[in-house]
Amino acid sequence: MKSAYGDDPNGNSQRVDEGESGRWRRFTREEISKRGENLDITWLRDESLQSGDNLPEPEIIAAEIMTKLQTAMDEMEALMLLLEGDPETEAETEALLE
């Protein structure tokens, strides 16, 4: 932590601007004004993330999410039955959880 932010706990340690692609960048007041005072500044990109151009249609993504949520709900219901300890449904419940 000290190597990144310096020894000053108030953040006043000197840092080096690493340029447009570096982690540490300096922005002038003028640059911030040009952005409409918006401080939501991002420039680093995680290369491991997919490009938005290659994503499936929103309907497909939503359907996959719904399927996963339904599976999770089914498993939670089976777990609740198992925790209640009903001997008649115990074997069936354990099978659902596998």
TrEMBL record:
InterPro entries reported for this sequence: SAM-dependent_MTases_sf, T1MK-like_N_sf
UniProt record, GO biological process: DNA restriction-modification system
Region (Disordered): 1-25
Domain of life: Bacteria
The entry's keywords: Restriction system
Biased composition (Basic and acidic residues): 15-25
Gene3D superfamilies (UniProt xref): 1.20.1260.30, Vaccinia Virus protein VP39
Family in the record: Belongs to the N(4)/N(6)-methyltransferase family.
Protein name per the record: Uncharacterized protein
